[in-house]
């Protein structure tokens, strides 16, 4: 039988047998994909500290949400000796394709405000905790809606403008001396407040009033204050508002969304529940990128260039779309400046586990 099979192969000119040994189109596609994977991985590896990345990955794994994404990988990471090999052999880089929403990297930071535990002529703007009458309702697709109960009916919670005009049923954590800085702390999601006696308290996101976030920068462009979105920065917004104090309230109130805070024992913490790491933590749209994911991002602007591995550890009202991320820059003047100026095209890859 073996001789017959060999003769048959010769008679048909190897057409049916040689194919068993020659590369197929599927083999070529696999080799091409593998080559592309290695190319992308190496481009993100040039200046990477893989030992640091592994340490941060293990910290990231402490969050329950991360365990849902990387259950087996998290366990495996505890026994790794070669950090680079671990990331290269354990994950596949999956490109996140953009949709009609703008692909963009922006930045945020941990601001410093000045405040007091007592209200005074200087310190008169309250930092509210979560209201006692705020109701959270889980709707379709796990959408979380907020409201309040009035005569047995749930109605929308007060808007920013309404909150400014009334006393709400919420603890006042402290008072600060600048309403513009307070507004920006809401946008950042956390901050520090230095009290009159020099003590510093950490403030973190607790909840929101449930109204849709509307960009102040976009509103100022629409009103002709700025000529284009590219002209807008946090620094320019604040400078314009300070130069036109009579317009501050009207402009701030165009964003009906309002953030409530809580006192924290630690510095800036994201939606994942872990302390954010400067230039390693990003806020993403969880509808496209699972919280806790390791992602690779590539972006370049006149002020900031990045091509590295980071962690999806936060969310934000303005962060919408698959190729949209907000890089946590940290604390201090450099972080503040870059976060205020950064707006750059963005490419994103999600690191998917092989097992």
- Report the total helices: 11
Number of strands: 17
Largest beta sheet: strand ordering:
1-17-13-14-12-15-2-16
What's the helical proportion of residues?
25-40%
What is the CATH level 1 assignment of the domain at 47-122 and 175-205 and 261-354?
Mainly Beta
Q: What is the rounded Rg? A: 26 Å
CATH architecture of the domain at 47-122 and 175-205 and 261-354: Beta Barrel
* Largest sheet features: 8 strands, mixed
Organism: Sulfurospirillum barnesii (strain ATCC 700032 / DSM 10660 / SES-3)
Keywords: Cell wall biogenesis/degradation, Lyase
Protein name: peptidoglycan lytic exotransglycosylase
Domain Lytic transglycosylase MltA: 112-262
Describe the structure using short key phrases.
355 residues; alpha+beta; Barwin-like endoglucanases; eight-stranded mixed beta sheet; six-stranded mixed beta sheet; 11 helices; 28% strand; globular; peptidoglycan lytic exotransglycosylase; lyase; 3D_dom; cell wall biogenesis/degradation; EC 4.2.2.n1
